[in-house]
Design goal:
Layout (H helix, E strand, L loop, with lengths): L8 H9 L5 E3 L5 E3 L2 H10 L7 H14 L8 E5 L4 E7 L2 E8 L5 E4 L7 E5 L2 E9 L7 E11 L7 E10 L16 E6 L15 H13 L4 E4 L42 H15 L10 H17 L4 H34 L16 H9 L1 H27 L5 E6 L8 H5 L8 E5 L9 E2 L7 H6 L3 H11 L4 E4 L7 E6 L8 E4 L2 H15 L2 E4 L7 H9 L4 E4 L17 E4 L8 H5 L2 H8 L7 H21 L9 H12 L6 E5 H5 L31 H4 L3 H15 L1
Parallel strand pairs: 3-10, 11-12, 11-22, 12-13, 13-16, 16-19, 20-21, 21-22
Antiparallel strand pairs: 1-2, 4-8, 5-6, 5-9, 7-8, 9-10, 14-15, 14-17, 17-18
Helix pairs in contact: 1-3, 4-9, 5-6, 7-9, 12-13, 18-21
C-alpha cells in the first residue's frame, strides 16, 4: 500500500494557524501524524487555499495579516473585569473607541500610552494598539465601535464594529432543597417513551409536566430529558434525538393538542373530529414494543390543523405576534424549511429529487416558495409558539412541585446534514465535512456521526450569535442544560468526505469564547450546566470546566468497573449509575449488554469471554455492596438496583441522577451503539419487568418507583 503524502513544514504551520491538528495521541497510546491529504481537505473546507505549495505559502501569509486588516475584531469574549482590545490603526490616522452597552449606554474607551507594534500590511504601515477593557463593564452582549480619521481630515473615514461579550467567571452551585446539604437528585427520562392515557402514541409536554410533578413530590430537584430539538416534519422522522434538524427550535411532535386554549372555540363537530384523531392513535399508548413517530405525528398533525384554524382572541393573537417578532428571521426560516419539506413530500413523485435551487435559501425559487407556502409557514410559526407555552407550563409544574432546578434539557452535539440548520445557516458549517470520533477499542474503524461541524472562524465573525440563540431557546423554560459531548466546545473530529472516519483529524474551537457564551446565558437564566465529559478527555479540560462552574458527569460502571469508591468522585458532578447507551441496571446486571451485542454480531471477542468478564464485574460490585452493609445474602434484583443508588449517594457529587427505567424495572436499552436498522434505537417505550407498558398515570403508585425514589431521597438526607 502506497504511503500517504506527508505535510511540508509550511502546511503544518498553516494547519496550526487554523486550529487543525497535525498530530494527536490515539486511544491506543500511539502518536498519529496526520497526512497531507487530510490537512488539505480540512483547510479547503474552511475556505483556505491549500492545494499547492504556492497556495499554502500565500495562505500562510494571509493568515498572518488577516487580523491586522480589521480596525477592531469581529468578536471578543472576555471574563468580567478582564481582557483587552486589539485595535489596528493605519499610519497617519487617529482612532476613537467606545463600547455601546446592550442597555443603550455608550462608554468611551481610553487608549493608554504605549509603544505599539507595527507591521506592513498591503504596503501600508499598520499599528497594533492594546486597549484594556474597563473592569466594571457589566455582563452582557455589547458592541465595540471604532472611528478612524486621517491626520488633518475633517471627518472620520472609517468605522469598525465588533461584538463584545462579557461573561461571568463562574456559575453558581446547583440550588437544592433544605436539609440535603447542598446536594440533590433527579430523574432521567426519555420523554418520547413516557406516555399517559392522554398521549398521542408518544410522550409529550403534558406528560413532561405530570412526570415532573410526580418526581418533585418524591423529593427530586430536576428532571433530565432527551434532546427535544425539532426533527423532520415528514416521514420518515429521524428517531435519534441526537441527530436533529435544528438545535435552535423544538419538536412540535411533543405538543399535546387538547392543552391548547383554542380547543375551547372548536365547534362540536370539530371537537368530535379531534377526539377521533386521538382515539385512532391512543391504542399505541399501551404498546410496549415500539414508538412510531411517523404514525403519531400523522395523527397529531391532523388535530393540530383543526386547533390552528380556530379563532384566537385579541390578546392571544397579540402574544403570537410578539413571539414571532421576537424570534425574528431564524424562526421564519425554520418554518419555511418545514413548509418546503411538506411541499415536496406531497408534490414530488416517489424517488424524484427536488430542484437543486431548493437547497439554497437565497435562491429565487426559495423566495417564491416563501410566498406560495405562506399559510403553511404560518402554521409552523404558530406551532413553535405552542411549543414554547407548553414547555413553560411543564417547567412551572416542576417548580410548583418543589423542584429547585426543574426541567433539564439536553443539547445534541450537532445537526442533520440536510436539516433546517444546515440549510438556513449554510455559511456557518464546513462543506464536505462530517464529525465523529477516531478509532477506539469499541469502534476500531472510528465513528462518523454524519453531522456537519460549525466553522470556528464563521462563529467568531457572527459574534457567536448562533450559539447564544440556541442556548437561550433551551434555557427559556428550564433550570439546567446538559451538553452532550461538551468536548466539542474544545475540539471536534472532522472527517473529510470520501475518507473513512479513521482518516480525520481534530479541529480546535475557541473554548474560552464558547464556554463564556454558555456561562453568560446560563447565568442570566439562573440555570445549571452539566457537561458530558466521558471518554478520552484531557485532565486540564475537566479542571477548566470545573473552574467555570460547569459540572461534569460520571457513570458508576465506567468508574473502575463500578469499584471506584464514590467518595473519590468529583464534587462538581452529575453522578449516575447508568447511561442511555447501556441497558438499564436490571438488564446490565443480567448481562443483557453482552447478549444483545452477541445477537447483533457486534462482539470482537468470543461471547463466552465477554460473559465471563461481565459476571466477574457484577459479582465484584455486589461483593463490594455487601462489604459496605448495603446488601444481604441472596438479594433480589430490585434490592441490588436500590443498593447501587444508595451507594452512589455516598459520593460528594452535587447531583445524583436516577434513570426512570431503573425506577420501574425496565431491562431494554434505549440505544445500542454501533447499530442503525439492526435495533430500534430511541424507539423503546417505558415498560416494567413484566414487559407491560407503564403509563405516567400509574407511576406515582408504582411500588418499585416509590421504593427507589424513597431510598435515594433518604440516602441524600442522611
Amino acid at each position: 500500500m502506497a504511503e500517504l503524502e506527508q505535510p511540508t513544514a509550511d502546511l503544518v504551520a498553516l494547519a496550526d494557524r487554523h486550529g487543525v491538528a497535525t498530530e494527536y495521541w490515539s486511544f491506543f497510546g500511539e502518536q498519529v501524524h496526520v497526512p497531507a491529504p487530510t490537512l488539505r481537505a480540512v483547510l479547503t473546507a474552511m475556505g483556505v487555499d491549500a492545494e499547492t505549495d504556492r497556495q499554502v505559502r500565500d495562505s500562510l501569509d494571509e493568515a498572518e495579516l488577516a487580523l491586522w486588516r480589521d480596525l477592531v475584531p469581529a468578536s471578543l469574549v472576555v471574563k468580567q473585569g478582564e481582557g483587552e482590545l486589539l485595535v489596528h490603526v493605519l499610519d497617519g490616522h487617529d482612532v476613537n473607541l467606545a463600547v455601546d452597552l446592550e442597555s443603550g449606554d455608550r462608554w468611551p474607551l481610553t487608549i493608554p500610552a504605549q509603544t505599539p507594534e507595527a507591521r506592513i500590511v498591503d504596503g501600508v504601515i499598520v499599528w497594533r494598539v492594546r486597549v484594556p477593557l474597563p473592569g466594571d463593564l457589566p455582563l452582557g452582549w455589547h458592541t465595540v465601535r471604532g472611528w478612524r480619521r486621517a491626520h488633518g481630515a475633517a471627518s472620520d473615514d472609517a468605522i469598525g464594529t465588533g461584538a463584545l461579550v462579557v461573561t461571568p467567571h463562574r456559575l453558581a452551585a446547583p440550588p437544592t432543597r433544605p436539609g440535603n446539604r447542598g446536594r440533590g437528585w433527579g430523574l432521567m427520562a426519555q420523554l418520547y417513551s413516557v406516555r399517559s392515557r392522554g398521549s398521542w402514541g408518544i410522550g409529550d409536554f403534558a406528560d413532561l409536566a405530570d412526570l415532573a410533578a410526580i418526581a418533585g413530590d418524591r423529593g427530586a430537584d430536576f428532571l433530565l430529558i432527551n434532546p427535544v430539538h425539532a426533527a423532520e416534519v415528514t416521514s420518515p422522522i429521524e428517531a435519534s434525538p441526537y441527530r436533529p434538524s435544528t438545535r435552535r427550535f423544538l419538536a412540535s411532535l411533543y405538543v399535546r393538542p387538547e392543552d391548547i386554549r383554542e380547543v375551547a372555540y372548536l365547534s362540536p363537530g370539530q371537537r368530535a373530529e379531534l377526539a377521533e384523531a386521538h382515539r385512532l392513535i391512543a391504542a399505541e399508548n399501551t404498546d410496549a414494543n415500539r414508538i412510531d413517530r411517523d404514525e403519531a405525528w400523522a395523527a397529531k398533525r391532523r388535530g393540530l390543523e383543526l386547533v390552528h384554524a380556530a379563532p384566537r382572541s385579541a390578546s392571544r393573537q397579540s402574544q403570537l405576534d410578539a413571539f414571532v417578532a421576537g424570534e425574528g428571521r431564524p424562526l421564519r426560516d425554520f418554518a419555511l424549511w418545514c413548509a418546503i419539506e411538506e411541499h415536496y413530500a406531497q408534490t414530488l413523485p416517489a424517488g424524484a429529487e427536488r430542484p437543486s435551487e431548493a437547497w439554497d435559501i437565497g435562491s429565487p425559487l426559495v423566495a417564491q416558495l416563501r410566498d406560495d407556502l405562506a399559510g403553511v409557514v404560518y402554521f409552523h410559526l404558530w406551532l413553535q409558539w405552542i411549543v414554547d407555552q407548553q414547555l413553560g407550563a411543564a417547567q412551572a409544574a416542576a417548580r410548583q412541585s418543589g423542584m429547585t432546578i426543574g426541567v433539564m434539557h439536553d443539547l445534541a452535539v450537532g445537526v442533520h446534514t440536510e436539516g433546517s440548520d444546515a440549510w438556513s445557516l449554510r455559511d456557518m458549517y464546513a462543506p464536505g465535512i462530517t464529525v465523529g470520533a477516531p478509532p477506539d477499542m469499541y469502534n476500531q474503524q472510528g465513528q462518523n456521526w454524519n453531522q456537519p461541524p460549525w466553522l470556528p472562524a464563521a462563529l467568531a465573525r457572527a459574534g457567536y450569535a448562533p450559539l447564544r440563540d440556541m442556548i437561550r431557546t433551551l434555557l427559556r423554560h428550564a433550570g439546567a442544560l446538559r451538553i452532550d459531548h461538551i468536548i466539542g466546545f474544545f475540539r471536534l473530529w472532522w472527517i473529510p468526505s470520501g475518507l473513512g472516519p479513521g482518516a480525520g483529524t481534530y479541529v480546535r474551537y475557541d473554548h474560552d469564547a464558547m464556554i463564556g457564551v454558555l456561562a453568560l446565558e446560563a447565568h442570566r437564566a439562573g440555570a445549571v450546566v452539566i457537561g458530558e465529559d466521558l471518554g478520552l478527555v484531557e485532565p486540564w479540560v475537566r479542571d477548566y470546566l470545573s473552574a467555570r462552574g460547569i459540572l461534569g458527569t460520571s457513570v458508576l460502571w465506567f468508574e473502575g468497573g463500578g469499584l471506584t469508591p464514590p467518595e473519590h468522585y468529583r464534587q462538581a458532578l452529575l453522578a449516575t449509575v447508568n447511561t442511555h447507551d447501556l441497558p438499564p441496571t436490571a438488564g446490565y446486571l443480567a448481562g443483557d449488554h453482552v447478549a444483545l451485542r452477541e445477537e447483533l454480531g457486534l462482539l470482537t471477542r468470543p461471547a463466552a469471554d465477554e460473559r465471563a468478564d461481565a459476571e466477574r464485574e457484577r459479582d465484584a460490585v455486589i461483593g463490594m455492596l455487601r462489604e459496605r452493609g448495603l446488601l444481604g445474602e441472596s438479594p433480589t434484583e430490585q434490592q441490588i438496583v436500590e443498593a447501587l443508588h444508595v451507594h452512589l449517594a455516598s459520593s460528594p457529587s452535587w447531583l445524583l441522577g436516577v434513570s426512570l427505567v431503573d425506577a420501574v424495572g425496565e431491562r431494554r436499552v434505549q440505544n445500542q451503539p454501533g447499530t442503525d436498522k439492526e435495533y430500534p434505537n430511541w424507539q423503546v417505550p417505558l415498560a416494567g419487568p413484566d414487559g407491560e407498558a407503564i403509563l405516567v398515570d400509574d407511576l406515582a403508585a408504582n411500588e418499585r418507583f416509590r421504593s427507589l425514589t424513597a431510598a435515594v431521597d433518604g440516602a441524600l438526607r442522611r
